[in-house]
Specification:
It contains 3 helices and no strands. The chain is an all-alpha fold and about 80 residues long. The longest helix has 25 residues. The mean pLDDT is about 75.
């Protein structure tokens, strides 16, 4: 029973951590405009200098997060089998 509870907990944790990154990818700029107007430095729109920066795709971040979680799950499983 404990093993089922641990598996359910880890599955829920994995879904919740990746859901945050996926929802951040789908959010529009309205959220950031609202955030910066309330707590940040005013509106993000308007004129200003534009600088080119490398674009980081959110799906790459999700893949990296999935790889880290897979390594943690593998380490946990190996430790569980040895001990």
């Amino acid at each position: 029973m404990l093993r089922i509870a641990q598996s359910a907990f880890l599955s829920t944790l994995a879904v919740l951590t990746t859901a945050g990154a996926a929802s951040a990818q789908s959010r529009g700029w309205w959220f950031w405009d609202w955030y910066y107007e309330r707590w940040g430095h005013g509106s993000t729109g308007g004129s200003g200098n534009v600088s080119s920066v490398p674009e980081i795709d959110a799906s790459s971040g999700l893949l990296a997060l999935a790889a880290v979680m897979a390594m943690l799950a593998l380490a946990w499983e190996l430790r569980r089998r040895r001990g």
